[in-house]
């Protein structure tokens, strides 16, 4: 049999009230703690609410950049005169300053701001319309031509005195997207074409009848204008055709101090009332 150790402990009565070391947290994890209801009542939070009763966070509101008020007379007269619905959505495209080239007869085109075309006008068009306007793909950056060493020109001779006329390089021809321009004073133009040039990557509106329209417009060089776009789509309700497709309309609105307050389609003002007594006095002539 193995040996057993016998430990003899001497009891000391003075150690009964002596301080003992505090047990570790791990050893006291399962210890029972008496509940004091009076002490717990002092720490009750009166404004506590359940989680499902808390107010939901407000939804973030969509901030529309460059939000502008709609042009005057748009829904009251212009849309009705064009044969379009009065509740069409209007899309602000961009602002610009009218340049001399926009009014030049030799240029014969109206240039649109590139930022507004790419960011606001292009999302409104279908794939077919983007292809027609040459806006379906982003243009490739133009490669810089390497610098060439310029040699001195040879002396002129009798045979080389004639000037050689170089042919101007022509870019790719695009049919363009059918559009109509609208102005408060000029009304609507004939059907024009919107297209993007491959040479300068500029988006322009051109076509026969542009010069006649631009001469009747309310804006001139250096005027600040806004460009809006709207288009009517085909809609059918229970077999009944409510409206047909329309071409894209570009509304050019002058924003300077001299902007017109009325449009071409506004009804004429009512004549001022005439005083009948004054007319009778004029007919009767001066009293003797």
Uncertain segments of ≥5 residues (pLDDT<50)? 60-65
Residue share in helix: 10-25%
Question: Secondary-structure element order, as H and E?
Answer: HHEHEHHEEEEHEEEEH
- Taken from the alpha-carbon principal axes, the silhouette is elongated
- Please name the CATH topology of the domain at 74-136 and 172-254: At1g16640 B3 domain
Mean pLDDT: 78
**Biggest sheet layout:** 8 strands, mixed
Specify the oligomeric state.
single chain
What integer value in Å does the Rg equal? 42 Å
Distance from first to last alpha carbon? 165 Å
Superfamily (CATH H level) name of the domain at 74-136 and 172-254: DNA-binding pseudobarrel domain
What's the helix count? 7
CATH class of the domain at 74-136 and 172-254: Mainly Beta
CATH architecture of the domain at 74-136 and 172-254: Beta Barrel
The strand count comes to 10
Secondary-structure class? alpha+beta
Strand coverage percent:
15-25%
């Amino acid at each position: 049999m193995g040996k057993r150790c016998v430990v003899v402990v001497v009891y000391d009565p003075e150690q009964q009230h002596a301080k003992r070391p505090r047990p570790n947290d791990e050893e006291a994890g399962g210890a029972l703690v008496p509940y004091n209801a009076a002490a717990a009542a002092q720490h009750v939070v009166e404004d506590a609410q359940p989680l499902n009763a808390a107010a939901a966070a407000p939804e973030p509101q969509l901030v529309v950049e460059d939000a502008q008020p709609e042009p005057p007379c748009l829904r009251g007269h212009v849309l009705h005169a064009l044969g379009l619905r009065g509740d069409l959505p209007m899309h602000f495209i961009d602002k610009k300053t009218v340049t001399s080239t926009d009014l030049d007869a030799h240029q014969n085109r109206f240039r649109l701001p590139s930022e507004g075309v790419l960011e606001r006008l292009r999302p409104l068009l279908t794939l077919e319309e983007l292809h027609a306007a040459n806006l379906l793909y982003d243009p490739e950056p133009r490669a810089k031509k390497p610098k060439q060493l310029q040699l001195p020109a040879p002396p002129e001779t009798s045979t080389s005195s004639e000037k050689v006329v170089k042919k101007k390089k022509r870019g790719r021809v695009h049919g363009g997207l059918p559009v109509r321009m609208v102005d408060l004073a000029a009304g609507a133009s004939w059907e024009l074409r919107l297209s993007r040039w491959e040479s300068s990557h500029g988006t322009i509106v051109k076509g026969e009848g542009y010069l006649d329209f631009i001469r009747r417009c309310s804006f001139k060089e250096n005027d600040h204008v806004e460009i809006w776009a709207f288009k009517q789509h085909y809609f059918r309700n229970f077999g009944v055709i409510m409206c047909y497709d329309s071409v894209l309309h570009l509304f050019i609105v002058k924003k300077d101090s001299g902007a017109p307050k009325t449009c071409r389609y506004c009804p004429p003002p009512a004549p001022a009332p005439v005083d009948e007594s004054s007319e009778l006095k004029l007919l009767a002539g001066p009293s003797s």
